[in-house]
Specification:
The chain is of the alpha+beta class and 187 residues long. It is 23% helix and 27% strand. Bound molecules: ligand K2U and zinc ion.
């Protein structure tokens, strides 16, 4: 398995629609495996294909052991609402409070193309919504007020200077440290 480069805010791919997956190949399964490895190395609980520079409509999540590869996912039911702080691996160390549904039902296909349906609540529901947004070019900052989005983007303009281009390369070995002031963004 391989660690993939994470594409950062400013890369146009994060704002593009993804392409539905129609062929469930060994290459696709390798991509999914590499996305899980990359997500863990970045201490994330989700990762969408555009974040690693790919246009396939797929994402991976692992929330407290609830591990899914969701291919061609659709939210078929969303209910309840709660606000919680979120972060994004494509613009690390930028945080914002987002209101999302507290319960969703997602229909998707697995890595073999087999359709499945999953009900999720709380953090897993939030993660599914965050990742499925990525597959349609939407980012959590889009839900912020104008002033909060402007502040977040200004903060990112400073933070992004530590990276070359719009790419973040992860180091093999220990997962990236989690900000102790935001240990569970998304709770
Ligand atoms: O798509 C991503 O950027 C991965 C996010 C997904 C996510 C953000 C907010 C709430 C739920 C999921 C990363 O996992 S951000 C890092 C993180 C780590 C633990 C808990 C929440 C967020
Ligand atoms: Zn994200």
């Amino acid at each position: 398995m391989s660690l993939l480069p994470i594409h950062l805010l400013g890369d146009p791919i994060l704002r593009e629609e993804t392409i539905p997956v129609t062929e469930f190949t060994d290459e696709l399964r390798t991509l999914v495996d590499d996305m899980f490895e990359t997500m863990y190395a970045a201490s994330g609980i989700g990762l969408a294909a555009p974040q690693v520079g790919r246009r396939e409509r797929l994402a991976v999540v692992d929330v407290e052991g609830a591990k899914y590869a969701i291919i061609n996912p659709e939210i078929v039911l969303a209910e309840g609402k709660a606000r919680a702080e979120e972060a994004c691996l494509s613009f690390p160390d930028v945080y914002g409070t987002v209101e999302r549904a507290t319960r969703v039902i997602v229909q998707a296909q697995d890595v073999n193309g087999t359709p499945f349906e999953v009900e999720a609540t709380d953090l897993l529901a939030r993660c599914f919504q965050h990742e499925i947004d990525h597959l349609h070019g939407k980012l959590f900052i889009d839900y912020l007020s104008y002033l909060k989005r402007r502040a977040a983007l200004a903060e990112w303009e400073e933070l992004r200077k530590q990276y070359t281009g719009n790419i973040r390369h992860l180091k093999p070995g220990a997962p990236e440290l989690v900000d102790p002031e935001h240990p569970e963004a998304g709770m």
